[in-house]
Amino acid sequence: MKLAYVLLLYIVIVRGGDQSCHNDHDCRHGNCDGHNLVYRCLKTNHDSSGQCQCLECLTNHDCPHCHDHQFQYCSGRYYTCGCEECTHDIHCTNCAVGQTGKCHRHHDTERKFCQCEGNAQTTTVKSPLKLECSHRKISVIESIAENLHVEDNRAELCPDTTKHQTSEAFVINKCNSTARSSWLKGESVKSLCSSGSITQYTPISTFHQNENMAAFFIDCSASNHELKVAVQTCTDPPYILMLNETTSPKMSDFHIILQQL
Ligand SMILES: *[C@@H]1O[C@H](CO)[C@@H](O)[C@H](O)[C@H]1NC(C)=O
Ligand SMILES: *[C@@H]1O[C@H](CO)[C@@H](O)[C@H](O)[C@H]1NC(C)=O
User: pTM of the prediction?
Assistant: First the structure.
């Protein structure tokens, strides 16, 4: 690692020439022949002047977007762009209620990763309850057989329509649930699947910032990363859907639903 650093610094300095600068503007006539490199004003610590050098990035904003829920960062040490699962704690949103997401750096690989910690909210006024409605199994099956949309005014409207027939509408209606705004993320379906502790027709959901799916759990295989659910969408009446880790949404996006009543 040390050697790589020294080598990189050497390359940066040799390539960079020695035009001194006060800001990036001073370096605008410089020419970097490598791909994705920009001629920037690199200052050491708090010096007011620096030298024009060819760099991939100086700040996170210089880095192209990362895919797949990863976050971009500019390594302050090597001035190169990278993608991480997180760069700050706020990126770790996949924790159960009461837990706090922390962004840690791995000792060996130096990559950052999210970890859910603690039981921070044990003193909440009213603890949320698990939304349970496996007793509505027959009704869910009937809706699949009928192949007709289930509507419920407590759910949002489908885009550009006057129909409350989202994936939430199916769950809300069968479970007599409150609206999604009162839902909280419970345990991950994937981990419940591994321990075999989730019952058929348990209502489950993704908890992204937007674009979510609510459904009924039917079956799963932890080893094959397969999840079978009953779901309706704005366009499709209730049907059986197979999910895995390559589908969208993917298996690991799903959690049981807690209701803050
Ligand atoms: C549905 O829930 C409401 C309260 O949220 C309750 O008043 C009503 O009786 C419930 N309906 C059924 C069919 O359980
Ligand atoms: C995931 O599911 C899709 C759609 O059902 C399927 O085409 C694909 O083969 C599955 N991938 C794996 C790895 O099982």
Answer: 0.58
